[in-house]
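Thread: quick sanity check before group meeting

JM: Hey all, I'm pulling together slides for Thursday and realized we never actually wrote out the predicted structure for the chain we discussed last week. Dropping the sequence here so it's in one place. If anyone has concerns about the input, flag it before I start.
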Amino acid sequence: MGYRGRRRGARRGWPYFRVHHFARQLGSPFPLLAAVGVKTKRIEIGTAVIDMRYENPLYMAEDAGAADIIAGGRLQLGISRGSPEQVIDGWRYFGYVPPEGMTDADMARRHTDVLLEVLGGKGFARPNPRPMFPNPPGLLRLEPYSEGLRDRIWWGAGTNATAEWAAKLGMNLQSSTLKIDESGRPFHVQQAEQIRIFREAWKAAGHAREPRVSVSRSIFALVDDRDQAYFGRGNEKEDTIGFLGDDARAIFGRSYAAEPDVLVDQLAKDEAIAEADTLLLTVPNQLGVDYNAHVIEAILKHVAPRLAWR
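JM (edit): ok, ran it. Output follows.
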């Protein structure tokens, strides 16, 4: 679950939920999203991210449409090829196998293509001439259909190329705390370049609306003894390098943990935060609701106003 603070928006914050299979946490987000939608009135709700290797895009479109209608059009769906997971090729247990000549990443993008197509609302299925219920004329679309949801799909891009691909398809961009290392430069510099590539591709594609772009950060304002105990050791002040799969060199962005004055100076120099319009704060759910509320409140009170975040 995260907090989003838009620098140029009206909403102060809203929850996005991580989705992981074979882990002791949320695996199927739509019941929870619908429940949050019933209990709230104004905040946006979403995911970061749904692994499309596991998804039947037609079922997903039905579930997403229902949750979005229940929430009054406030759903923001982050989707992606997925991140390192708990088991080996877990999507195979769900019955999804890439066709010959395709990778699992290709399969995720193929599922995404289908999802985007059906969310457009055009009819594609030939109706039964003797239906159980009366049909509207013409080919049938999936129901329930939620108008506008197609524009609220975000792609979690790990490379410059997938960010460009997402822009061409008219998806918003979610860029997390890791990406493939494509230049050896600091993480926030590479991420800022990824965002610029996305915006240029969006403009070239000629989409009518303005895209949205988010970046994720782990940020902790050290304002009391608990904060110092949990995050005051200074162990994650630098980017780190790791490997995804066999040979994909990845760069993981640093965490920010410092007194508010220091945080303000550090965050002002983060090029990717400056490029994005939305900031997602990752929160440590292991530490409980009360402490997470404290973490968010400390940033809202001591950091956000001085950086003109809204």
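AS: nice. Residues 1-12 have pLDDT under 50 and may be disordered. The chain is about 35% helix and 20% strand.
JM: adding both to the slides.
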